[in-house]
TrEMBL record:
It holds the Pfam family Ribonuclease_T2. This is Ribonuclease. It comes from Rhizobium sophoriradicis. Belongs to the RNase T2 family. Keywords: Signal. One of its GO terms (biological process) is RNA catabolic process. PROSITE patterns: RNASE_T2_1, RNASE_T2_2. InterPro entries: RNase_T2-like (IPR001568), RNase_T2-like_sf (IPR036430), RNase_T2_His_AS_1 (IPR018188), RNase_T2_His_AS_2 (IPR033130). Residues 1-23 form the signal peptide. One of its GO terms (molecular function) is ribonuclease T2 activity.
Amino acid sequence: MSSMQLRTLTFAVSMALAGAAMAQQADGRTRFILAASWQPAFCQTNQKKAECASQTGERHDATNFSLHGLWPMRQNYCGVSDDQKAADKDGKWASLPQVTLSAETQAALVKAMPGTQSGLERHEWTKHGTCTKMSAEDYFGVGVHLLGGLNASAVRELFAANIGKPVKAEAIKAAFDKSFGPGAGDRVKMSCRRAGNVKMISGLTIGLSEAAGSASAKSAGLADLIQGAGKTSFGCDEGVVDAAGF
């Protein structure tokens, strides 16, 4: 083989390897899910919950996404006793161990996760947080940080600008692409629920890469974590952005 042929072959192999690496990065693998709720829609069918009975149009969760949880894929209840698992599944969250957090993280979580009024943080830690390698402080710190990235994006702006109106999947995916890079909308699934005759957007589950499972994700950009995840179907194709109140 001549030196010219060798150089040509080496270049071709390098390009093929680079292309494969780019394809792998583009496809990614979803290791975590950021679950974000649109609280007014959730509250339409859970009006007796403490966080719903106290909801007002001025509260943060009336016009921003709320934190449901940060979920490692296909792992639940790691190292959790059978009694705690049973209590969690029965919805007896008040009987679960209290989550100990710093005052700063606790205050941020109360704002980001209205469900703390019903013990949602105990449920999320018991079912999902125990399957990460993070402490509770880091686990909830990461969740609050990533939700903040979502609420600072064009996605939240789209929802806030259309309260009381229907929004289509295409518009939401475009808002994700605008804020988090091309293809970000392909890594999101939307859920809807019916309240009477109205189909409302209840939340988004956003695919994230493995890097979301470490304390360093508290300073990571949401775009990078989304781009490193795998693609998914979008789910609900259209729904109303519900307003606070019943």
